[in-house]
Amino acid sequence: MTTADERWQPARLFPITGIGGADEQERRGCSALLAVIQAVREFGRELTTRCGAPAGTIETFIELPFLKDKARFRPDGLIRVTRGQRAWVALVEVKAGHNDLSPEQVANYLDIAREQNFDAVITISHEVATTPGVHPVPVDKRKVRKVGLFHLSWSRIHTEALIQQTTHAVSDPDQAWLLSEFIRYIEDPKSGALDFDDMGPSWVSVRNAAAQQTLRANDKETLDVVTRFDQLLAFCGMELSRRLGVHVQQRLSRAERSDQANRLQTQAIELANAGQLSGSLQVPNAAVPVDILVDLRANRVDCTAVLGAPLAGRATTRINWLLRQLKDSPANLQVVATTARARDAGPSHALSALQNDPKLPVEHAQADIRSFTLTLSQTAGTKRGQGRGSFVGSVTSLVDRFYAEVIQYLKAWTPPAPKPKGDSGEEAGDTTAMTKRDGPPDADDSTTTGGTTTDLIPAGKAVAPWT
Predict the structure, then answer these.
(1) Are 250 and 379 contained in the same domain?
(2) Which domain holds residue 307?
(3) 93-110 in b/e burial notation, b at 16+ Cβ within 10 A?
(4) Whole-model pTM above 0.85?
(5) Under a CB-based contact definition with an 8 Å cutoff, are residues 411 and 287 in contact?
(6) Are 153 and 258 contained in the same domain?
């Protein structure tokens, strides 16, 4: 007798069988998403509050007809959040696959929302919004004076669902099962709920021009690639968020957040002049941010972190303090020790070399090491899409590996707590009595893998390891 798992398909709440094209993907994806937003309280509240809705009772609807200038329009959905006597209402437009949002369609829905006294328009597509309040498509600012415009990428929706699943944020077991079914649905390629996976049609020409030093910052193709890279950085943060169960964000200054256009133009100039793209991610409670640098001329991706050195102890003591934290890190991790008043960074050494000889970066016994720069590198992919040999895959995989094998083990140095005077027989005001707890262990009494002395900060992991 043939067993069930060989011939029978399990019944699914959100089936992917029978999907015949982008239109069907959009209808099913919108219906499934809105149903889960209404049914799973915590998930629905997380997404709707991101779009300006109050906390309240959520109702969702699909394919509502509207008239505008005698023309018929049918947005994919509508969300209504009721709190007391107040109702917040948003139109929803969904795109599946690689279909982009239409500026004209978004503008029409904003007009309809204003005429109906609705509060917002929410768009959903594969496109990634990298800056809060900035929509992926250009819209006349006059249209958003009375109506809010918000965007959720499928990547963001997927990330929020996985974070809630990982952290067990959904308290009701039936609702948690609904969320797991939705995750299973959008993770199937047939659903059309795609993650960021493409550097765009301009990628190959821009990559080649950057390598040949013929790229111009003001070319449309350059700005397109810079915009895609900005989205890639946001996606790298979402990839980490899914694995860690926390929200990893791009690290941006206030000026960069307030003026995305200027930030992208600055990146375009850097790409044209130096052939480089860069960005940074901040992981909650991590000791240092993750800095990402892509050098298209060298065809290399670097992930870097700068960790402050202890402010006490000899140079080799400070190096041993670092090495104890990196005992499980890759042997080819490059380490640069920077000293006070140094004009240039010191020489770079592989971690394996430092573990064999911790004195390598020490030019003299009195060297005042102030920080360590840690860098992990790999060859940049060349293909524009996902998969083997792709640029997107080379960046995301290195970021994941750098966090898992380096960043999660790092702890910032903190000075020891002051000791009360006279508790151990010292005369009041006597500052000569010191123990090894007052600073890093002496280099002669410790090893690179943790000796018998007391560490300044107990060796351990900042976040539980994952693979």
Answers:
(1) yes
(2) 218-409
(3) bbbbbebebeeeebbbbb
(4) no
(5) yes
(6) no
